[in-house]
Design brief:
This protein has 252 residues and is of the alpha+beta class. Helices cover 32% and strands 14% of the residues. It has 2 domains: 106 residues, Beta-grasp domain (Ubiquitin-like (UB roll), Roll), CATH 3.10.20; 115 residues, Alpha-helical ferredoxin (Fumarate Reductase Iron-sulfur Protein, Chain B, domain 2, Orthogonal Bundle).
Length: 252
């Protein structure tokens, strides 16, 4: 009797752990219709795999027209942010087993930004707000002959907001942003915070003035959606409150 190969044994073991999962995806193709519609796909997948793996199976094996963004697939690039079962998440960090695979897994584009196709949105307004807050170190004088030194305590002051990966999960979870596309949004404020409280930077006042605009930090309603949505665990609402406090206290 033939001895089963290692590959066959591993394949059968993997298959035995697979379950049938329904992905309910909100599809939109402007070349076909101006209306979005839901489409169901059933796949066999290990519940320990990720939602991104499920999307890959659908695209590669069932429907090559399914469109979504992804790059590193390891929670670093932030490109695969989407609404999964009604919450903003990174598809590459969301395990099938953690979202009740016995019911359909709904997947749709993040809100507040124009959908271009399926799960892909126009990120330009998001990145424009990011650029507007001057997300770079501003100093005076000539180039230094050595690095600009900073104490561990000064660095710790803004450590949390250095973690942003610009996935837009926080901004597109904000009800103010959904209803007012002019609002800078949480991600832009987080990235302004990162430099406002950097002891080496000299443009803090300028950034504060930008965020003092009617579309800046005062539009925040402190719903904590942004903090809940952040895949990096940034205390987004706290950072926004610190910027508000800086605007108030600088007057005195």
């Amino acid at each position: 009797m033939a001895t089963p190969t290692l590959d066959k044994v591993e394949s059968e073991a993997t298959a035995s752990h697979n379950i049938t999962v329904t992905f309910r995806i909100r599809r939109f193709n402007p070349e076909v219709s101006d209306q979005a519609e839901w489409q169901d796909f059933q796949i066999e997948i290990d519940p320990k795999e990720r939602v991104l793996d499920g999307l890959h199976k659908i695209k590669w094996d069932l429907d090559g027209t399914l469109t979504f963004r992804r790059s590193c697939a390891h929670g670093i690039c932030g490109s695969d942010a989407m609404r999964i079962n009604g919450k903003n998440r990174l598809a590459c960090k969301t395990l099938i087993k953690d979202i009740n695979p016995e019911k359909p897994i709904t997947v749709e584009a993040i809100k507040g930004l124009t959908v271009m196709k399926d799960l892909v949105v126009d990120m330009e307004p998001f990145f424009q707000a990011y650029r507007d807050v001057m997300p770079f170190l501003v100093t005076k004088g000539n180039e230094p002959t050595r690095e600009r030194l900073q104490s561990a305590e000064d660095r710790e002051r803004f450590d949390d907001t250095t973690k942003c990966i610009l996935c837009a999960a926080c901004t597109s979870s904000c009800p103010v942003f959904w209803n007012d596309g002019q609002y800078f949004g949480p991600a832009a404020i987080v990235n302004a915070h990162r430099f406002i409280f950097d002891s080496r930077d000299e443009a803090g006042e300028q950034r504060l003035e930008i965020l003092n605009d009617k579309d800046g930090v005062w539009r925040c309603r402190t719903t904590f959606n942004c903090t809940d949505a952040c895949p990096r665990g940034i205390e987004v609402t706290k950072a926004i409150q610190e910027v508000k406090r800086a605007l108030i206290t600088r007057r005195f």
